[in-house]
Design goal:
19 helices, 44% helix
Amino acid sequence: MKICAIIPTYNHYKKLPDIVTRLREQNLPVFIVDDGSTEPARTHIAGLQNETQQITLCRLTHNQGKGAAVMAGFHLALAAGFTHAVQVDADGQHDLSALPQLLKLAAENSRALISGQPVYDKTVPLGRKIGRWATHIWVWIETLSFRITDSMCGFRVYPLQPTRDIMADHAIGQRMEFDTEIMVRLFWRGIDVIMLPVRVIYPPDNTSNFHVWRDNWRITKMHARFFFGMLAWRFIPRTKTDHWAHLAERGSYAGLVFCAAAYRLLGRTACRLILLPIVFYFFLFGKKQRNASQEFLTRVLKRKPTLAESLRPYINFATRTLDVLIAWQGGITSKNITSANPQELASITEDPRGGLVVVSHLGNVDISRAVLDKKTRDRLTILVHTRHAENYNRIIRRFNPDATTRLIQVTEIGPDTIINLKQRVENGEWIVIAGDRVSVLSRDQSVAVPFFGKNAAFPQGPWIMGALLECPVYLLFCMQDGQGYNLTMERFAETIDLPRATRAEGVRHYVARYAARLEHYAMQDPFQWYNFFDFWADNT
């Protein structure tokens, strides 16, 4: 760890020399950021610069706000090679005798945000106290946690790398909303927050830069933005590519936790109503996803979908996600799932042999896994792109640790993995892989076959893997049916045979058969198609 101190100041200079001295006593290099102070403060602040004593002054040409000053200090610290920064306000309110303990906690928790938790005396103005409590309540709602007991204290130690990432990804508020916003966003990123009680006073001669109406209005807007933003698992792409793997998961972990909590308090129907505004938001502003979904519906329906029909996949997708959360909490059980072919399903599940199960992003195969008994679930090894849905998998783990214990990244499969999977199959396990999405690393290993009237690219991987594993191959579909789900598991091939001389033709044969079965089930309910990208694009 390499720690420095950052002091943002605007016209505060009387306490500044003592603050700098106390910081230097802890061997902390100091960056003072003068946020456009006027005279006489400007001259007094300038007089504190002393490069030999590692006291550096940065002056902003005009007043930009506390947040802008602190972020300017972050950039200076990062450029100088520091890993952590202590933020200290310049008005002398904080008891700096707590500084050694603050630094000790930072050393013991290098990735955490260490923050002061103000302990006020009678000097605190009543209006400020009430305003802070309002912010505390909103932060507890936004984070669904009581870990942040005070988000407005300007006495804290930042880990600079994750803080830099936050600043790169978001336009952080530059004024008094900064302290709260940066803390909440760090918390959402999984950065732990550790609070340390610190005595705070309001001296009689203290001049506050907090503008009651303007700053409270900024803070109110920030909380409104946070509240509605936290509800969303955002899938609007941030990159120019249309490949599905680059449609970044933009949903917050807190938003998914909120959905799960809303279900527990209000039930499934009420929770679905709560999700509707979010669904409308993504329908309106996710242009690429909307166009791709409408193109699919146009091909299946053989006409342009109505507005209500265009919305249905979005509503169904929200319901699908909610139901998986509910199922992992035990709210949906096997009683809610019926089998379309019970005799064949029983024959497959009773077969002691292992196999390869090919699934798709049609319907809700996730829920079928959630309601399985542990013995059957332990037969499954799922090949996934979990990096594409980290928050989703994180919340699933929260409800049931078994949910992600048998997942393998498809981008990490090599010869050793194939050997491992073959051993699993020989032990009677089922390997589950999606057959309808081409990996971004495997575009040259796809096969274009007819799908709803036009060639679409499908991956070769599942069928080559089936040949290598030398096992039965099954197709699994699970479609929403009213308030429940209907599951179909069918035998696709006893073995995948790919002779070397005709391997390309053999792969194309199996891919075309799979595409035909996928087309068959998609026609039964096209509104459960959840590939929100251009399925027929040249770069799939």
